[in-house]
Amino acid sequence: MNTTLLSIYILIWPALAMGVLVLLCVALVRDILAARRKGTDLV
C-alpha cells in the first residue's frame, strides 16, 4: 500500500510537467496566430 502511494506520487510529477508544457505551447501558438491575423510582430 505504501509503495503504491509513493509510486503514484513520483509518477504524477512528469504528468503535471507535461500538462504545463502543453498549456504553454498552446498559448504560444494562439498568440502567434493572433499576431499574424493583426499583422503585427509577436515581440
H/E element order: H
**Annotation, overall tally of beta strands:** 0
How large is the radius of gyration?
18 Å
What number of structural domains do the residues give? 1
Helix content: over 70%
The shape, in one word, is rod-shaped
Question: N-to-C terminal Cα separation, in Å?
Answer: 51 Å
Q: How much is the average pLDDT?
A: 93
**Class based on secondary structure composition and strand pairing:** mainly alpha
- Low-confidence segments, ≥5 residues, pLDDT <50? none
- Specify the biggest β-sheet: none
Give the count of helical stretches.
1
Strand fraction? under 5%
Describe the protein.
The protein has 43 residues and is mostly helical. It has one domain (1-43). The chain has one helix spanning 2-38. It is rod-shaped and about 55 Å long.
Protein traits:
43 residues; 1 helix; single chain; mainly alpha
Helix-strand layout with pairing:
Blueprint: H1 2-38
Short synopsis of the structure:
This protein is mainly α and 43 residues long. It contains one helix and no strands. The protein has one helix at 2-38.
